Amino acid sequence: MASNIISNHAANLAHRNLARAEEATNRSLAKLASGKRVVSARDDATSLAIGARLNSTASAITSGIVNIGHGNSMLQIADGGMATIDGVLVRMKTLAVQSASEHLSDSERGFLNDEFIELRNEINRIASSTNFNGIQLLGDGSDVSLDYSDLKTGGSANALSHANGFSNFTITKDNYWAGDDTGDGLGDNQLRLDLIKIGDRVMLSAAAEIDGASVDRSQSIDITDYATGGTKALEVSEKLSLDFDNVGVKVDLNFNIGSTIANALTQGSDGAGADGSTTTQLFGSTPVFSVLEDQGTKLSDRVYLQVGGGNTASDQVSISMTAVDAAALGAGANGTEKSLDDLGKDAITTSVKARKALDTITRAIDDIQRARTNIGANQNRLDVAGSNLAATLENVKDARSSLLDLDIAAELTNQASNQILTQTSVAMLGRISEMRQNLLRLLEG
Asked: What is the pTM of this model?
């Protein structure tokens, strides 16, 4: 081989191999530091693309498992509320059985009926208030209030004032007043209150106008005996609450009502009633409250849980929801029978009514059990879906690992080889440098 000065092929070759070995060593170190076989697309573009999709799938499945956990929590809350209602129904049946016995007096049945009605109201409250993150679980949520602005501008602005004996007005049946039977989404329900003289008696009347229609429900309570000097006249510190259960309104009266009633008894008659009695409308115009409706959050027929990463039916789990308020319980599987609400305010005041109520309560207990069975079935379904997702996630991660994860032992072997090549290349460059020195000595001689 000729010795020359201009060309140094051996040095160039050794330098190129050194650069290649150093690059391989650096890439090996990057892989070992990251734990990944594919650090960039240049390592394996196909595996990188497939691995990215698998990583996205694993992330979606993980979120789906979390959603299933939330769904199970939601159903557990629903089941807890239903369990409470179930206990209330058992107590209501006990009261109905007691009232059905003919050895009780009317006053004793009245006591039983009072508890019966309060328990029914509690069922409605539980159904309305049981929710998960704002999602109604047992019935429609509602939030209604009375708007006093109409009274402030109307001709009867002072008719229902504290000075006339009226302290407070409260909606007691939110679900009824929050109804929107016409589906127009408008809050067009109104409460009308009036003081009427019928013969020698004074009645406080309440009427509900729902969806802007004519009177839907009404109720009158005789308050004559609360007049000043009457047998039930209120003392200065006393208050009286009148529960218009049929209308879903409670009116609180103070001692000033006595003089209002006494003045009403002195009024003349406006005309003859259907029964021949005379009637007098004591307010100049009927006071009207507009009922402000929040409508609340309605109970959905179904709640969908996203368990997959796509937009298909198989990526969702559908959970059916069942109403268990007093309007639904007792209606039966087909919804055609009388419900607890249909029993009215005198549900068990007589033995005959109590026996009829027993049939309704028995159906209500069956209804709540069907609803709880539905909850249990959905919980079991979610458990199965969760187990399937967990198994799928395990397999997806394994597939991703086989594509992207680094074989540490193999890569350490490659690194050792690259380090040896680097050291050898450096040594060869040193030998080539010595050869150039020999050529210089040859020239000097």
From this structure: 0.62
